[in-house]
Design a protein that fits this description.
Number of strands: 12
Order of helices and strands: EHHEEEEEHEHEHHEHEEEH
Structural class: alpha+beta
Radius of gyration: 21 Å
Strand content: 35-45%
Distance between the termini: 30 Å
Number of helices: 8
Length: 284
């Protein structure tokens, strides 16, 4: 069994250009789509490995891309020779490890699988760099959280001591930032910030109020893809407890291991997962 993970894309480096001229947003999205679809530029790691997008298809009618992201590096393929009871090792200068992805550019959401070389957060970091290299637009992906599980985990704190937030501006407008986190885009633009880290800390015996409006707004902001959160405190046994919104309770869908590299199947399951996320947001 394998998993499909989800993340929301936020234009980051050029976000204030979008706020100052909303017509630029569709232009940037088109630039990103073309970069992923047609881009041939690879990026390399310090070990000499190459990350590359390949096999990308563009479904114009339904506004999504599907394709593969691969890691290419010389290596050894091993198999077992049963007749001679020995290993057979074959050198490959372009040994490939790869995953499949579905990028819905209407909703700025990516769904993707993982592999031994391309893990959950690792994929997002690589995908961002490939978009920058091929589209020359700086973006940041925020992992999608299973909000129901996040609420359950927070309810299980007997004492919530600290909340650490990483917040990125939304694509469409600046209003949610002020309502959810008490931050205005104007303030961020004045100091030239495109990411904010925010902390709530309580040293009092009762800890932070889990049921307060500000904490509920934090959960809502994380659920809507504006940031990530880490919740730290104690469980009912007095033991240390930590909940990371992207690692502990990610929103994910299952896919059989044999189909995890099939871009068509990942696309279909990714679309179904996206619809679940959108339906949940409507209910909230």
């Amino acid at each position: 069994m394998a998993y499909i993970y989800f993340a929301k894309m936020n234009i980051n480096r050029e976000i204030y250009e979008v706020y100052n001229d909303p017509k630029k947003f569709p232009e940037f999205i088109n630039q990103i789509v073309d970069g992923i679809w047609k881009g041939k530029t690879s990026i390399h790691d310090e070990k000499g490995g190459e990350y590359k997008l390949f096999g990308v298809d563009n479904n114009f009618d339904n506004e999504y891309l599907m394709g593969n992201l691969g890691y290419i590096k010389e290596g050894i393929h091993s198999s077992f020779d049963r007749e001679n009871d020995k290993a057979i090792d074959v050198f490959d200068k372009d040994k490939l490890d790869y995953v499949a992805f579905y990028f819905n550019y209407r909703y700025e959401m990516v769904a993707y699988t993982t592999s031994s070389k391309i893990r959950q957060k690792n994929f997002l970091e690589i995908f961002q760099k490939l978009i920058l290299a091929n589209a020359e637009i700086g973006v940041e992906f925020v992992p999608q959280t299973n909000t129901t599980d996040l609420k359950k985990e927070i309810a299980n704190f007997s004492r919530l001591k600290r909340i650490d937030l990483k917040i990125v501006p939304s694509n469409d407008d600046s209003d949610p930032m002020q309502d959810l986190f008490g931050i205005t885009s104007n303030t961020m633009e004045q100091i030239n910030a495109n990411r904010i880290e925010q902390n709530y800390v309580s040293t009092q015996s009762e800890g932070l109020d889990k049921d307060s409006v500000p904490v509920k707004k934090v959960i809502q902001g994380i659920s809507e893809g504006y940031g990530e959160g880490k919740f730290i405190g104690e469980d009912t046994s007095g033991e240390s407890k930590e909940v990371d919104s992207s690692k502990t309770v990610p929103f994910r869908q299952t896919v059989s291991s044999i189909n995890s590299k099939d871009k068509q199947i990942v696309s279909e399951k990714g679309r179904a997962g996206l619809l679940k996320i959108l339906e949940f947001r409507k209910r909230e």
